[in-house]
Amino acid sequence: MIEAVTGLLTRRNEPADARSEPPEQPDHAAPVSGVALGRLLAAAILSPAQASLLVADALDQLEPARSEGQDRIRLRNVTVSDSGHLTIEYARGAVSGHDVTEEVTGLFRSIATNCRGSALPGRLHESLLETTDLDVLLQRVRLAVEPDVDAAEESRKRCQLARLVAATRGRPRPDDRTVEERTAGEKPPPVDTGSTLASPGWFPPARNPWHRRKRRPSRRQGALGLVAILILFAAVWMAPRAWSDLRRGWDAVLNPVNPEEQNQIRPVSPPPEPPAEQPTPATTDAGRVPPPVDVGAPGSAGPITLVTATRANGECGPGQACEIRIDVHLDPAATVDAVTWRVNVYDRCSGEVRAGGDVSERVQPGSQQVYGIVRTDLPPGAALAVAAITSAPATAASEPLLMPAENARC
């Protein structure tokens, strides 16, 4: 954008007579000592005061040119001199007033875009919107930069711009004092060569040598390390128990227990009935083989299609408490409200039968199976059997669950 805004006319320090008619300069005219505005804006970011000075310089040169007929002025080059002044060089040519307004607008917009961190860029951009008249444009820009123009700080800001120009060109920075402030015959002090955009009081950051030392761990770090070791030790020690709890929870998910069964009262066994006469089985040297168990009920009856009795929690034997799971399968075509069963314990050697209490379980609508878990105490004995017998809605029995299942002897 800045390359398009070209033209050079030094108007601010010229006498009034010389401004009456800007002379046409040939292409081989000697360039003004300084740096192009586009190069300066690409290398540095201006402060609001510096940007307002450059805009004011441009206005001081464009406003007289406007009164003398800018319709044939073609902007050629924009330069910031070594003293920190903006200079516009222009040449006359066949160009319309609209094109001149666009070039001047681009010049001010480039300065506003470079200046950041204040309200000046916003005011400049607003002053450049929706205007095609150069007089109106220059007047609005003048009002936009007036709050940031300080005559008392102009000399210092010019020195700052001069240092930026020198740094952009890669030359030593000029003295901070103006020419008027130096005494006659005094030479500027020598400065280091090289390009820099830093202020005079800026120094490169130095790393604290303390950061390069290898410090011992603090008490807090030691405490955190000890806590981490204790947590690791506890995790290793609790891993087997956690694994056991995890397996138990997994079994509970796969084999859920009805919450109503947790409040059931343990059935009380009635007095044993007199043993029936049983044929004496064949005996061996290790004892006689116990006779088969007669549960006294069929495997299915009425809407009951099957009754099963299985161990609910691992192995159990005589003289121990045993949890038995009872499953009653129902005919899907039948309508059953509740199922009642009991668990009988048979002593296969003596023929004694210990009957448990009745347990009732409601049948959910559409369900084809009812199950429950009953805890019963097994009496001492060499050969026992457990069977579930239903009493409602029909009488059916499960296959006897033998304990032990094989090689039982009386």
From TrEMBL:
Domain of life the protein comes from: Bacteria
Pro residues: bias regions: 268-278
Basic and acidic residues composition-biased segments: 11-27, 172-185
Alphabetized UniProt keyword annotations: Membrane, Transmembrane, Transmembrane helix
Region (Disordered) residue spans: 9-31, 166-218, 261-302
Signal peptide residue numbers: none
Transmembrane annotation, as ranges: 222-239
Basic residues bias locations: 209-218
Name of the protein this chain belongs to: Uncharacterized protein
